[in-house]
Amino acid sequence: MEVKPKSACDTCAHFNAAGLKKLGVDTSSFDHVIALAGNPNTGKSTVFNALTGLRQHTGNWPGKTVTRAEGGFEYNNEKYKLVDLPGTYSLLSTSEDEEVARNFILFGKPTVTVIVVDASRLERNLNLVLQILEITDRAVLCLNLMDEAKRNDIEINTRTLARDLGIPVVPASARYNEGIPELIQTISEVANGSIVCKPHRIKNIPKNIEKAVEDLSVEILKEYPDMPNSRWIAFRLLEGDQHIINLLRTGEFEEYIS
Amino acid sequence: MNTYDPLLALLVFLGICLLGFLFFRPNNGWFWLINKGSQSTDKIIVEDILKRLYHNENAGKYLNINDIVRTLKQNDKMVIDSIDNMATLGLVRISGDIVKLTKSGSDYALRIIRAHRLWERYLADKTGFNKTEWHQRAERKEHELSMDETNLLAHKLGNPQFDPHGDPIPTITGKMAELKGVPVSELKTHTIGRIIHIKDKPDIIYKQIMAENIHIGSIIRVVEKSPERIVFHSEGEAFKLAPIMAGNITVSILEKNISYEEDILRLNILKENEKAKIIGISKEIRGESRRRLLDLGFVKGASVSIDLLNPLGEPKAYLIKGTSIALRNDQASKILIKK
Amino acid sequence: MKQKNIDNIIALSNDLRWQIGDEFHDNLAEGIYADAAEIVKVSVHKPNGDNRLRLDAKIDKIITSKTWGFPLMFLILAVVLWLTIVGANYPSSMLAELLLNTIHPALKGYASALGLPWWLDGFLIDGVYMAVAWVIAVMLPPMAIFFPLFTLLEDFGYLPRVAFNLDHLFKLSGAHGKQALTMSMGFGCNAAGVVATRIIDSPRERLIAIITNNFSLCNGRWPTQILIATIFIGATVPASFAGIASLGAVIGVAILGICFMFLTSWALSKTVLKGEVSTFNLELPPYRPPRFWKTIYTSIIDRTLIVLWRAIVFAAPAGAVIWLISNIHIGDLSIAAWMIDSFDGFGFLFGLNGVILVAYIVAIPANEIVIPTILMLTVLVTGISGGAGAGVMFELDSANATGEILRAGGWTLLTAVNLMLFSLLHNPCSTTIYTIYKETKSVRWTVVASILPVIMGFVVTFLVAQVWRLFA
């Protein structure tokens, strides 16, 4: 992660308006699209409400938001559209929720993906974080529920965590609105390219799989040289993801990634 | 209304119920029988004969017409007519009494086998049907799937190599993954191997093996061998099998450097205030359930303890990676741990 | 060229997948968790290890204990239902006074002052307005009490523990413990109960919960049960026991509903649904103090008003239909009278009558308007004095007066018992049917969920009627 001076916006990231339209998200009149991902029960919807001022119901229940909720906010004269993805434990399975979340990040290419995690259950939450970091390199980790973590005497070194994950980490307690201004600030810095992420890539994979992923990845890059997440596409192909295979076959894939 | 009598009404009602039962009762209901009758039985007989010939020829045996008539539980005359028909279509050659597959006949047979095994795989991975139903359902479905449908199915399943019994699934071109294994009955003591195949015939033995809770993919270690019985350990349990049962289970022998975890237990026997490490999830949990457990953190090396007992005995809540997750006992009994 | 490269990629992935074998997903999941563990080791310091908060553990010990778990659960459910049913009485009667007894006559007055033709003012004010007003008056107060209470329990984290405690019972019938919650939610409103099944993430168990939710007596049906039980069941015993007897009958019907729910769940899981994928897991989240006002606000916005809006949308046309069939005449009889006549024989077989069946057909949108419709139709066909005119639904303040009208319509104790049973076992209201379709996106399951309870209702009332007549 390196911090560059805030200069002309040649480093600015852009979301994929065409892809988002296909996913049913209207992006006209917005400068940035922000996706909100996270495990169930991490207070993701509370963060969403804190950012947008909307009052979506936030249940103390795993798996509440089944469809996407959308909202928006304005910061420094720029308009941000916020899309709340279904809470999932992972992005590797075939359930509807996971497909919605996975395809949104992969094809919608939101300008920034905010990953909300429960600070006192970081290890479990990192499962999802590490998967998302394979897909996108513009992400912010929102370390939510810091108040609960403090009550549990859990100490987290956000500096080393940010270094290891390669993305900015913002501690927050969304219930009490703590850390939300900082979160907005960080989102805008990533969106405008003044923070550049160097996301962590999954390491502990058996050799034969690593080799297969690499071989496949090389082939994919031959065809789509600019693809930032060829490794993730390789994972999905090895998993036999029908959606992606079909998109490749029909050539629609191109429209999404261009 | 002048003919109304409650007793009469009740009797009419009971009559309707009885009729409904006779029509729709599972397996032998008239509705199902009529339904079955309307399917082209000819096609089914032909395909069943092809399959039987293929399996036997693979084992180096040739069948005569009598054998076929005897093993197929169908009208004798229809079977004989079908064989004649197949000869004219060039699917089989009849030399004397012996019936042999031609090239196109064996290709056809492979296609049926492919459909059957793919469907079993589909049932195992993508549906909730019990494992004892897979074979029977596939026996029916194999005759219904067209070639295109079969290929689409294979594609959707990610072109799997093996069916849930460990039998190789032929590819479109008829290629099959090779099974390099040894029957358990021929293993020496202390050999470690992974179960790669369980024969689903004869039915009686297969059901016994299923009842023993033995499944493909488990690693076993033979601890005792005598002419009367073979004892092996697998996933924390000891199994004692008669040689004919053991002969139906094939394992591939693993290299020496793989160590067999001897004192494996199952999560459901963990007691309050005990800690354990997860060794893995039994191969019996497949498809979506397996993925879900992995996603929830039930992965190799994770430490687990009981968080809450249940007033009704189950499910129990387990503390895994900092979160309390409740599992039912039949799930917990398929998670392997080491204290 | 391009297509060829892509085909190559897919072919290569097939080959590689073939080589790696079945373990890919396991290996990947393990790999990711191994990375996570390494990262956490560097950055997170936990002095207490993995243990949960002591207070959380203490609360859990009580809530899931053998001694306290179940009594506590029933106590809380009873309190919530009591608060809902009793607490809703006052605002309900105030709303009824306002909408039905004040605004309705006022509207009629304006209409005649404006010189609207009788049919237009009847259609709009007596038909559409009346049905909508009725649904609001009966439905809004209980939902505005029930849903916030339920949501508070949910936000606190108590409900997952209820699912945990009860799961074993539901497992026996092939269902998921969380169905206990969607079922309880159904006591408030079936449409809301169906939406709540989203918390069940296993496809088979979710369908079971959706299809069986209708067996929870919803708040549109509680008043029907209470009214009929008071009039007919209470009258069978000495006056001093009347209250207890009628209360017992209503609770009995609700419990019968729960029995049907278990039975149907079991049958579904063993037959039509056995091929659906079934996975189980239940996360017990930490307790979090709910933020009272915010919860109340969001649960009223999110649940109450949405459900109410749907009900109104469906009730308005029903009001129009009810008015039209009572006022359009074919020959010298209204359509309603024709329908009632032709259903009478059929209804008799089930210990019901034509009026009841017609009322249930036209009042599909909302169970709340069944009783007013029955009263209006009874007056219409018997020609006794009372009521507010053809097509104008009404209800009386005293149960005795209502009972007199019904008895004049030929009602017996058997009719009352079977009406209570049929009110429990009939198709879901159209709001719920629509919601089931939205949630399952399947015509097939929507049809099953709609038809199954009606068939069961006819079978049960039929059997009761025949046996009753044999022995009585």
UniProtKB/TrEMBL annotation, chain A:
Organism of derivation: Maribacter polysiphoniae
GO CC, any one term: plasma membrane
Origin organism lineage: Bacteria, Pseudomonadati, Bacteroidota, Flavobacteriia, Flavobacteriales
InterPro entries given in the database record: FeoB_Cyto, FeoB_GTPase, G_FEOB_dom, GTP-bd, P-loop_NTPase
Matching CDD domains: FeoB
Residue ranges of every copy of the FeoB-type G domain listed in the record: 31-193
GO molecular function: ferrous iron transmembrane transporter activity; GTP binding
Official protein name in the record: Ferrous iron transport protein B
UniProt superkingdom: Bacteria
From TrEMBL, chain B:
SUPFAM superfamilies to which the protein is assigned, alphabetical: C-terminal domain of transcriptional repressors (SSF50037), Iron-dependent repressor protein, dimerization domain (SSF47979), Winged helix' DNA-binding domain (SSF46785)
Keyword Coiled coil in annotation: no
Coiled coil region boundaries: none
Domain of life the protein comes from: Bacteria
Keyword check for Iron: yes
GO BP annotation list: negative regulation of DNA-templated transcription
Annotated TM spans: 6-24
Domain Ferrous iron transporter FeoA-like: 182-253, 265-339
InterPro entries associated with the record: DtxR_MntR_Metal-Reg, Fe-transptr_FeoA-like, Fe_dep_repressor, Fe_dep_repressor_sf, FeoA_core_dom, Iron_dep_repressor, Transcriptional_repressor_C, WH-like_DNA-bd_sf
Pfam families per record: Fe_dep_repr_C, FeoA
Keywords annotated in UniProt: Iron, Membrane, Transmembrane, Transmembrane helix
Annotated GO MF terms: DNA-binding transcription factor activity; protein dimerization activity; transition metal ion binding
PANTHER family: IRON (METAL) DEPENDENT REPRESSOR, DTXR FAMILY, IRON-DEPENDENT REPRESSOR IDER
Protein name per Swiss-Prot or TrEMBL: DtxR family Mn-dependent transcriptional regulator
TrEMBL record, chain C:
Domain of life: Bacteria
A single cellular component GO annotation: plasma membrane
Transmembrane residue ranges: 68-90, 128-153, 226-244, 250-268, 307-325, 345-363, 370-393, 405-425, 445-468
MF-aspect GO terms: ferrous iron transmembrane transporter activity
Domain Nucleoside transporter/FeoB GTPase Gate: 138-228, 308-441
Pfam families for the chain: FeoB_C, Gate
Record key words, sorted: Membrane, Transmembrane, Transmembrane helix
Every Ferrous iron transport protein B C-terminal domain range: 251-298
InterPro entries: Fe2_transport_prot_B_C, FeoB_GTPase, Gate_dom
PANTHER family: FERROUS IRON TRANSPORT PROTEIN B
Name recorded for this polypeptide: Ferrous iron transport protein B
Native source organism of the sequence: Maribacter polysiphoniae
Organism lineage: Bacteria, Pseudomonadati, Bacteroidota, Flavobacteriia, Flavobacteriales
